[in-house]
Each structure stands twice: as structure tokens, then as C-alpha cells.
Design goal:
Layout (H helix, E strand, L loop, with lengths): L9 H15 L15 H8 L4 H5 L5 E12 L3 E8 L2 E8 L5 H8 L6 E10 L5 E12 L15 H6 L1 H7 L1 H22 L4 E2 L5 E2 L11 E4 L4 E5 L4 H9 L4 E9 L11 E10 L3 H20 L3 E4 L2 E4 L5 E4 H7 L11 H10 L11 H12 L8 E4 L21 E6 L2 E8 L4 H16 L10 H8 L5 E7 H8 L19
Parallel strand pairs: 3-5, 6-10, 14-15
Antiparallel strand pairs: 1-2, 1-4, 2-3, 4-5, 7-9, 8-9, 10-11, 11-18, 12-13, 15-16, 16-17, 17-18
Helix pairs in contact: 6-7, 7-9, 10-12, 11-12, 13-14
């Protein structure tokens, strides 16, 4: 049930009383048309190097606005910490310097209010740069007090459910999302400079496809039919390659009906890009260039620390085949690579449930890989040569058709990217789709559906192409040293509370 303002709360009652008194004095508590002459960081940068005498020698006045973050009142005077989007500045408010109306506003101030201040600068006895208020105007009256002990707010329920409070209380949180925006901007610029075209593809799909995942279902009333929130834009982007848009990318929201964890949110952001006349090996190099350049641009270095673990993003990254990793990292006996019976025994020891007796050996090996290898891939590592049976959209390797030309990039034990040389043979793709339909009939909820229109598109001819998807949220987690995906999504999905 929606909750309104808690008017029984004595702190809220006090603020409502002040609001009413201000209105009774003819003071508008929510005025419009507020302008400023400077942002706080401009003032700080212009005066940080000046002494108190040099500051006071300046006669210019400044107009700033922001939220009151701290208030030390001495009756007829006060020091206020004011914050705008660029920083903080101390403001000195003194009855002698203000009009009667401005002093009435000062008397009604609470932490959280927005004010507009005009004045000149000076330094206090402790050398803090301070604006002496000559004019004071209320911009927005805050009716709800910040939570108790809101400085450095740590209650994750409040932080995630009320992100607006989190952003007020924890300036480091804002820095994470500023960094996220800078990361996305750099990625976009990286591809535009390489002659990729940014496109937008549908969010509602008549057929779920482009990845192995369980979709969300929605209903379109006018058309009288169900649609699926996209689990990936892949098949639409490759349709564009067929149409002659040979280099395309999309920064998109995807939706997968899966569990919630520190690494999973049902709604998440992906980068997907496709390049004609390229192979998965070309994309390995491009991925290295992208991540190394991101680190250099944002942090001026290629070695970062994630949760105490030092990571190197200096190219080239490590490379290893999936089967090699099973033995060398997963500690599995080479016999499981050839014997389904041995692989089944190994899986059972690990507590892995085999779906049915028809489950092929490569699928079992992939499950063992996920259980024994992934968590140990700490440094950026490309795992390649995935089994064909678990890669329904990937091109078969020319020398060994049981594997595909595909890689996944792992960092800190989690998948960050998935890429492959695309399957552009329509007959092969049709057969793979039919295998997926068969798997779905046997209980595999994540198996793909048959997409006849995509087959039709391939029948018109798609040039040899390589494509890749990169999980933006997980990448931002690592680059900003955040332990949970909820820390890099402004409004993560949470359980409903009464």
C-alpha cells in the first residue's frame, strides 16, 4: 500500500509548521526561475590557492544554490554546508547582513532544504573558504528529515529502495554512477570512432531469442497476443548486417526471468556489437583494446584493485580452451573429455544434476567447467573453443565441427563478455534451432525457440561476421570496485515489502 507523508512524526510536524509559517509570511517555499552565477567547484578551483587576504581583496559577488547538508546555528548567525552537483561550500549567515524576510527564512531552515545565496567570499580563522550571505532565498522546503545517522548511510534496504536518500547521504555513491556514465560514454565513442553505427532494436519480441534464458512475458491488448521482453538483441542486429549495416552496436536493456544475486538483476544493460568481415579472434583484440583504453581514460593506469585483488588490464589477456581449462584449472582427469560415463561420474561428485540420459557429453563438460573453473579465473582470461551443442548461434570450427569459434571473457570468476564468429549458413542454423526446440520439449526452459524469420533473413545472405555482448553492469562493478550489481544499478529490482 502506498504510504503518504507521516504527519504523526514530530520532526515532520515541525517542518510542516515552518512551511505554514513561511507561507503565512508571504514567502513562497517552492519558487521557480532560480539562476546561479557559478557552481561550487568553479569557486573552489578559482580560490583554493589564495590566502585569506587575497580572497577578501576580491570584490565580486557570487550566486550559488544547493542543498543544506549541515547547519550550525548560533541564534543570530550560522554556518551552513551547502552542496550542489559539483561540490560543497561553507556559507556564513548573519542577521546583520540579511533583510528581515531573509532572516525569517534562515530561522526556518532545516537540513535538506535547498537555498539560493548571494554574497562575497572570505576565509574563516580555520582558513575554510566561505561565502558570506548578503541575500538568502528559500528554493525548496524539505518536509521529510533524512534518516537517523544518515551521514555514511549503510542500511542497504534504505540505500537500494530509496536511492535518492542514498545519493544524498553517500557522496561516493554518486561518484560510482558518474563513473558508470563515463564508462558508457567511452564505450560509445570507442565504437563510433571505428565506424560502427549505433542502432535501436525492439524491446518486445514475438519470439524470444538471441540467448539461452527464460523470458518475461507481457500481453499486448490491441493485438491480442503475448510478447516477450527481449533477452538479447542479437537476432535483430544480425538482420541489420544482412541488410547492409555491416558495423552496428547497441547499448541496451535486456530482461531475463532469473534469480536475483550479487551478480544478477533480471533487468540489466548489455553492449552488443557486430562487425562484418571479422572473426572472433579479431574481437578478442578489440575487447582488449576497449578495456585497456577504458582503464587508461578513467584511471590513467591499467592495473586496478577489485575487492582487494589486483587486476591487470594490460593486453594481451590470457587465453585457454575450455577443455584445457577443465584439466589445468579445474583439476579434472583428461578421461572425462572422451568418456560420457567418466564425465557423468565427475558431475555427480560435484552435485551437478544431469537433465536426462540423452544429455550429450559436451553439455556435461560445460556444466563441470562452470562448477570447477569459472570461479578461479581471476585475471582477465579468454576461454575459447566452446562445444557446438551449447552454442546454437555460433559458427562451427573449420577443423573440428564439435566446437565453435567462440570465446567468453572472465574476470574475477564471472563472465563479462561472450563472442563468436556468427553462424551465417541458414541450413545449419535451421538445424540448430530444431535441436533447441527438441531440448525445450525435454524440459530445458532456457532453450531457444524456432525463429523462421531469422532463417529467412540468413537465406538472403549474411557476410561472414563476428559479434559480441558485454555485460555493462558487471564491467562497471569491477572498474568501480563494487561488490554487488545492486551498487551499480540506480534502481535495482528488489522484493516487494508491505
Amino acid at each position: 500500500m502506498a504510504q503518504g507523508l507521516d504527519r504523526d512524526n514530530p520532526l515532520i510536524q515541525e517542518r510542516l509548521k515552518k512551511l505554514k509559517e513561511l507561507q503565512g509570511q508571504g514567502i513562497a517555499p517552492y519558487p521557480n526561475g532560480i539562476t546561479v552565477s557559478h557552481f561550487i567547484d568553479q569557486i573552489q578551483k578559482g580560490f583554493d590557492a589564495l590566502s585569506g587576504e587575497e580572497v577578501e581583496a576580491k570584490t565580486a559577488t557570487y550566486q550559488i544554490a544547493g542543498r543544506v547538508m549541515a547547519l550550525r546555528s548560533f541564534g543570530k548567525a550560522a554556518f551552513v554546508q551547502l552542496r550542489d552537483r559539483t561540490g560543497r561550500l561553507q556559507v556564513f549567515i548573519d542577521k546583520k547582513s540579511l533583510s528581515q524576510e531573509a532572516f525569517q527564512i534562515f530561522q526556518a531552515l532545516d537540513i535538506g532544504d535547498f537555498i539560493h545565496v548571494t554574497g562575497r567570499l572570505f576565509r574563516t580563522k580555520t582558513h575554510e573558504l566561505t561565502l558570506r550571505a548578503e541575500r538568502l532565498r528559500l528554493v525548496t522546503k524539505s518536509l521529510r528529515p533524512l534518516p537517523e545517522k544518515w551521514h555514511g548511510l549503510t542500511d542497504v534496504e534504505i540505500r537500494y529502495r530509496q536511492r535518492y536518500v542514498d545519493l544524498i547521504a553517500n557522496e561516493a555513491v554518486k561518484d560510482v554512477f558518474v563513473k558508470r556514465s563515463q564508462i558508457v560514454h567511452h564505450i560509445r565513442d570507442f565504437f563510433v570512432r571505428r565506424d560502427f553505427l549505433e542502432v535501436e532494436t525492439p524491446m518486445m519480441h514475438p519470439i524470444p531469442g538471441g540467448a539461452r534464458a527464460k523470458p518475461f512475458v507481457t500481453h499486448h491488448n490491441a493485438l491480442g497476443r503475448d510478447f516477450f521482453l527481449r533477452i538479447a538483441p542479437e537476432l535483430y542486429l544480425k538482420r541489420l548486417v544482412v541488410g547492409g549495416l555491416e558495423r552496428v552496436f547497441e547499448l541496451n536493456r535486456n530482461f531475463r526471468n532469473e534469480g536475483i544475486s550479487t551478480q544478477h538483476n533480471p533487468e540489466f544493460t548489455m553492449l552488443e556489437f557486430y562487425q562484418a568481415y571479422a572473426t572472433y579472434e579479431d574481437l578478442m583484440k578489440m575487447t582488449e583494446e576497449l578495456l585497456e583504453s577504458l582503464c587508461q581514460k578513467l584511471f590513467q593506469k591499467t592495473t586496478l584493485t577489485y575487492q582487494g585483488q589486483e587486476l591487470s588490464f594490460k593486453a594481451p589477456f590470457s587465453r585457454m580452451t575450455l577443455y584445457q581449462a577443465l584439466v589445468d584449472i579445474g583439476g579434472q582427469k583428461p578421461a572425462i573429455l572422451e568418456s560420457r560415463n567418466e564425465a557423468k561420474k565427475a558431475a555427480q561428485k560435484l552435485g551437478i544434476k544431469i537433465p536426462n540420459e540423452e544429455t550429450p557429453l559436451p553439455m556435461i563438460l560445460t556444466e563441470i567447467f562452470e562448477a570447477t573453473v569459472e570461479s578461479k579465473l581471476i585475471q582477465p582470461t579468454f576461454i575459447y573453443n566452446f562445444p557446438t551443442v551449447v552454442s546454437p548461434l555460433s559458427r562451427k570450427n573449420d577443423k573440428d565441427p564439435s566446437i565453435v569459434d567462440r570465446f567468453e571473457l572472465f574476470i574475477m570468476g564471472r563472465e563479462i563478455a561472450n563472442a563468436f564468429s556468427e553462424l551465417n549458413d541458414p541450413l545449419d542454423q535451421e538445424g540448430r534451432f530444431r535441436e533447441q526446440v527438441q531440448a525445450k520439449s525435454l524440459g530445458d526452459e532456457e532453450a531457444m525457440a524456432f525463429d523462421a524469420d531469422y532463417i529467412r533473413a540468413l537465406e538472403y545472405g549474411m557476410p561472414p561476421t563476428a559479434g559480441e555482448g558485454i555485460g555493462i553492469d558487471r564491467l562497471v562493478m569491477i572498474l568501480t570496485d563494487q561488490p554487488s550489481i545492486r551498487d551499480v544499478i540506480l534502481f535495482p529490482l528488489l522484493k516487494t515489502v508491505d
